[in-house]
Amino acid sequence: MKVLNTLDDWLNKAEGALLIVLLLMMVLLAFAQVVLRNVFSAGIVWADILLRHSVLWIGFLGGALGISNKRHINIDAFTHYMPPRMNSWFSVFTNLFGAGVCVFLTIAAVKFVENEISSGSFVYGQIPSWYAEIIIPVGFGLFVFHFIARAARNFFEETRKKEAAA
Amino acid sequence: MWIVVFLLIVIALFGAPLFTVFGAFVLFAFSAINTDTSVIIISLYQIAETSMLVAIPLFIFGGYVLAESNAPKRMVALAQAMFGWMPGGLAIVTLVTCAIFTSFTGASGVTIIALGGILYPILLKEKYPERFSMGLVTASGSIGLLFPPSLPVILYGIVTQVSIDQLYLAGVIPGILFIVVLSVYSFTIGITEKVPKIRFSWKNVLKAAREAAWEIPLPFLIVGGIYGGYFTATEAAAVTAFYAFVVEVFVYRDLHIFKDVPRVIKQSMLLVGATMAILGIAFALTNYFIDQQVPQKLLEMIQSTITSQTKFLLVLNGFLLIVGMTMEMFPAILVVVPLILPIAQEYNVNPLHLGIIFLTNMEVAYLTPPFGLNLFLSSLRFRKPVFSIARSVLIFIVLEFVALLLITYIPDLSLWLVNLRTAH
Which is nearest to B12 in space by CA: B313, B278, B369? Predict the structure, then answer.
């Protein structure tokens, strides 16, 4: 349990760091493009490709971090009116459900990347497409891990509370 | 199939992240028609193939930077100095600053949290009735939704392939209509409740303007740039993100580069992650709907009962009210719009007009008890029970509902400016 939590926190830190680097790069590059286009009528050819793939990477990293921070969009209209105890059992269940769904999405993503590798396509110049796409299976894999860690945290917190009450 | 859908709805109501619920559905749906599930990932990869999407992380980051800095305080001070002398002046200040702020932050509820927290105590201090003040800040939470550079408009454009510039143009009159309707009401409250007015002084205006000097150009730059056709929405996002970052971190130094910036980036990118997760799955969902001709089937189902455009719009208003009460803005746009757009076109509803109806309808839904999102946000922010918030917004809901009906049944409110522009 402790190992799971430590690994979870450690992964979150790494995801956060990568997010910061990617976003700052995006802000600078996107602004440079605007200046180049409007002032010098020029542009960096690969900038658009890099920016678009950064969105994909940021999406997955932010999504992974969002599982641990409970920031994914859900319908909370009904859970608002539920007792908190019940909600933490719900969340053990919904996190396990999320993990299950993401296992299948990871499998689909691995297949997708395998196809891309065998087709030998390039995202830009001599850079193979799968370099940019690898975040999809990796990202869904991270989702699985964070969902399980989250479910475990909720489960042990609840059982501890129950023992304390008894 | 229906059993699975029913089970998934139950799981969604338990509070499961929506992307996992929709993800489970597409996984099941594609397997059921013997299609390899890797097509889901092919659809999801559209995220990296859509240039417009670059705007999303940039705008969200820019909006968060502004929200976390003291920009809201400076904006309120300036607006108060300029409009505080009018009857109901401070209430109108609330509406206008919230509108500008929402257009920059999207409909993510940041407005109620950031601006509501500043404006509500000021409204009370200036002797506005408590219930009115509470209702006003809650209702103002999503009022600038139609103005550039609002993200929901961009998302609607991405989903429907409708020109985003034209959508912003279509939103001008409806957006102003909302503000005018609520301003007139605030004006009457200002008079009937005999709220004391603030004396106008140039000195105060100048002082407030000098303090906000670096922030004042931003809305003009972005709004002018987009309406004038100088910027695309993506470029406007790049400018907003860069400008807000430089001004708040290096000029005002409201945010410390090492202490605050990493936190703000992480916070804002959590929202981007949540959006992209749903977006990726929604792309796959849309492909499935198109492949299986779901909109056509829905159309056939309703065609015999809904025979006229007016009837269709009426049903649409009611339907969207329910959607808006249960879903947040982004997933609603991503999942519901692809379904209703082809149907609406059969009833001769212009996609631009549909976009404006959709977004304003959502706006009203967020106020509607018992499940409206703004009610919960206000309840959290001001530590009041949802019930008393709901009571305070009742009159605002009625007013916004009237505005919504006008916007829905008078298409020219949305289309007149667009036609004017294309005629030239």
Answer: B278
